[in-house]
Amino acid sequence: MIVAIASGKGGTGKTSVAVNLARVFDTPVQLLDCDVEEPNAHLFFSGTMISEEEIAISVPEINADACNACDECVEFCQFNALASFCRTPLVFPELCHGCGGCAQVCPRGAICEKDFRVGEVRTFQDERITLISGCLDVGVSLASTIVHAVKNRLRNDLPAILDAPPGTACPAVATLRGADYAVLVTEPTPFGLHDLGLAVDTARELRVPFGVVINRVGIGDDRVQDYCAREGIPVLLEIPDDRRIAEAYSRGQIIVEALPEYRAYFELLWRNITAHLGGNTAIEAMS
Amino acid sequence: MKIVFTTQGDNLSAPLDPSFGRTRNFLVFDLQSDAFEVISNHQNQNAAQGAGIQAAQTIVKAGAGGLVTGHCGPKAFRVLEAAGVKVFNTDAPTIAEALARYRAGNLVQAAAANVEGHWA
């Protein structure tokens, strides 16, 4: 089962929910850090790195002797990765999306492809948790390519928790697509509510069933709860605004380890996810 | 030789636009005849990426020998350099002023991009 932890707004606690949910498993579980522009889940674990793989795309290399400057490749490229002025085009690999279309349309077979590194995927093992973490190189824009590389390393026989990037743009969609369930983490503020609406629209569009976790309950107001009730969206968990959680987080500690009383919260979250997925609409609340 | 100026306007008294790739128009000025034409860069203003590269191709195809603008990034500079277009950076407020400075020999040809790329 694949559960993506997403949110419209950044900083609502996706990574906190993801790492703590993974930690309460008493069986092997995979945690995928799909926030490849700023991966940070690994900061909470002390496991060992078991692999480090380079991720590359195929970018064009033009044979100037075969090229007759017809510009068909330049016109085909929608990403402005090729530039021409009546001679062999210049290639800008950092703008290329690796689609290979330029080589296909070249009438003279003047384009071959070579690897261009865009990032890496690291895998760590910490007790029961296998953490697969994607990291996009600085100066490269292909976040979704790294997200796909991370997800391609997922084992189907173990549950997986995906820490999604914030927002609802391509990298977040690449993470959510194909997930069995999405947990949308928000906070009870006007920004949290507004961006939750965007995340809800995205999950509905992708036909991924979802529920909401409200973090830092006690700040703001009740409009997120009211919205969820109105829309028929289950609130899977409410996490109180507790300064001790922020203090533990700032030290790189996992909440369920630093503050054991919160272990029950994340166990409840998992029960509510499986209950909702199983068609059970009765969601448990923390007593 | 033709010199290209970046601008939001369409005549010599218009302000010089400091950005190259996302300027609205290019004013292509012919130094021999003192005639000019205006080329739109409108389709490039909202490009997701590579606006400077596209803009560079546009002015190369317009026959530019020189470019006078505020800023030029590394990718656009690479295209212009390969095509032999000289780049001059200036803070002149209008095209007329920039042209006067060019004719007086007060503009120095840039040896490299004068701003960072957006991705690197």
Written account of the structure:
Chain A: GO terms for molecular function: iron-sulfur cluster binding; metal ion binding. Chain A: InterPro entries: 4Fe4S_Fe-S-bd, 4Fe4S_Fe_S_CS, CobQ/CobB/MinD/ParA_Nub-bd_dom, P-loop_NTPase. Chain A: Residues 58-82, 87-116 form the 4Fe-4S ferredoxin-type domain. Chain A: Keywords: Iron, Iron-sulfur, Metal-binding. Chain A: It holds the Pfam family CbiA. The complex is a heterodimer of chains A (287) and B (120). Chain A has 287 residues and is an alpha/beta fold. Chain A has two domains: 2-47 and 127-277, Rossmann fold (3-Layer(aba) Sandwich); 58-117, Alpha-Beta Plaits (2-Layer Sandwich). Helix content of chain A is 31%, strand content 27%. Chain A has helices at 14-23, 72-76, 101-105, 143-152, 170-176, 190-205, 223-231, 243-250, 255-258, 263-277; strands at 2-6, 29-33, 48-62, 82-83, 90-91, 111-126, 129-136, 160-163, 181-186, 210-217, 235-240. In chain A, the strands form two sheets. Chain A has a nine-stranded mixed beta sheet, sandwiched between helices. A two-stranded antiparallel sheet of chain A has the order 4-5. In chain A, a hairpin with a 2-residue loop joins β6 and β7 (129-136). Chain A is elongated. The mean pLDDT of chain A is 94. Chain B starts with a strand and ends in a 17-residue tail after the last helix. Helix content of chain B is 24%, strand content 22%. Chain B has one domain (2-103): Dinitrogenase iron-molybdenum cofactor biosynthesis domain (Nucleotidyltransferase, domain 5, 2-Layer Sandwich). Chain B has 120 residues and is an alpha/beta fold. Chain B has three helices and five strands, in the order βββαβαβα. In chain B, α2 links the parallel β4 and β5 (86-89). The model of chain B has no long low-confidence stretch (mean pLDDT 92). In chain B, α1 packs parallel to α2. Chain B has helices spanning 51-61, 74-82, 95-103, and strands at residues 2-7, 25-30, 36-40, 64-69, 86-89. Chain B has a five-stranded mixed beta sheet with strand order 3-2-1-4-5, with helices on both faces. Classes of the chains: A alpha/beta (287), B alpha/beta (120). At the A-B interface, loops of A face α1 and α2 of B.
